[in-house]
Write a structure and sequence with these properties.
By secondary structure, the chain is α/β, with parallel strands linked by helices. Helices cover 36% and strands 26% of the residues. 41% of the residues are buried. The structure holds adenosine-5'-triphosphate (ATP).
Length: 227
């Protein structure tokens, strides 16, 4: 089966203040429907890798493929469309627009694609909120809900365009154990019921141990997890 994401010999250098080889020959594949976690010491390059895999950073060597299509070298406008259509992203902090309603926050990425009518987008946003058990919050301002609820809204927003893969950079890093478990269960359900692929950077060993595979990073390399 064609991998959802494939990294081939990715190297990344930061040049300021001095040249620093941050990612070294990263090669691995994410098969469809796999729930993968990435672990490794602080500073080993996890976030840097995720930014490349999510097409937000294009300054690297090597090749990145999404569903078999080579993305490296594509122009920014094309990449941003491919990203919006295929990749959902959840961060440690939710980055919701506090003055907007929960529903509007979830609808925004679908409006960017302009593929559906406003009515269809609203319908889909309600469906995502229902799936995450937060439909009752739809009309509340995003600034007026709890931290755990905000993260569930951020997940709903990441899912609105029905991506092939959901990526997360420590999405439970800011949550208490109850809300972390809640987010883990949501991810598991998305994998099992929707066949979604997930790639999640985490420092939480319990979280990672329950995913299908742990990619272990050390000093810019993948050193474990059958890449
Ligand atoms: N823009 C930048 N310029 C120079 N060096 C950077 C830049 N961004 C990150 N780094 C360095 O690259 C290394 C990897 O950073 P990265 O954020 O990817 O690590 P990480 O594994 O995600 O760490 P953490 O677990 O603490 O979030 C670190 O040494 C960091 O200081």
């Amino acid at each position: 089966m064609t991998p959802v994401i494939e990294a081939r010999h990715i190297d990344k250098f930061f040049t300021s203040p001095v040249e620093f080889h941050v990612l070294k020959d990263i090669t691995f594949q994410i098969p469809p429907g796999e729930f993968t976690s990435i672990m490794g010491k602080s500073g080993c390059g996890k976030s840097t890798l995720l930014y490349i895999l999510s097409t937000m950073d294009t300054d690297y060597r090597g090749e990145l493929l999404l569903k078999g299509e080579v993305l490296s070298g594509k122009p920014q406008n094309r990449l941003s469309r491919i990203r919006n259509e295929n990749i959902g992203f959840v961060f440690q902090f939710h980055y919701l627009l506090g003055d907007f309603s929960v529903l509007e926050n979830v609808m925004l990425p679908a409006r960017k694609l302009a593929r559906k009518s406003e009515e269809e987008i609203r319908h889909d946003a309600h469906e995502k909120l229902r799936m995450l058990h937060i439909e009752h919050l739809a009309l509340k301002k995003a600034s007026r809900i709890s931290g755990g609820e905000k993260q569930r809204v951020a997940i709903a927003r990441a899912l609105i365009n029905d991506p092939a893969i959901l990526m997360g950079d420590e999405p439970t890093g800011n949550l208490d154990s109850y809300n972390s478990e809640n987010v883990f269960q949501i991810f598991k359900q998305l994998k099992e019921e929707k066949g979604l692929s997930l790639l999640i950077v985490t420092h939480d060993e319990d979280f990672a141990s329950r995913t299908d595979r742990i990619l272990e990073m050390d000093d810019g390399r993948i050193v474990g997890g059958n890449p």
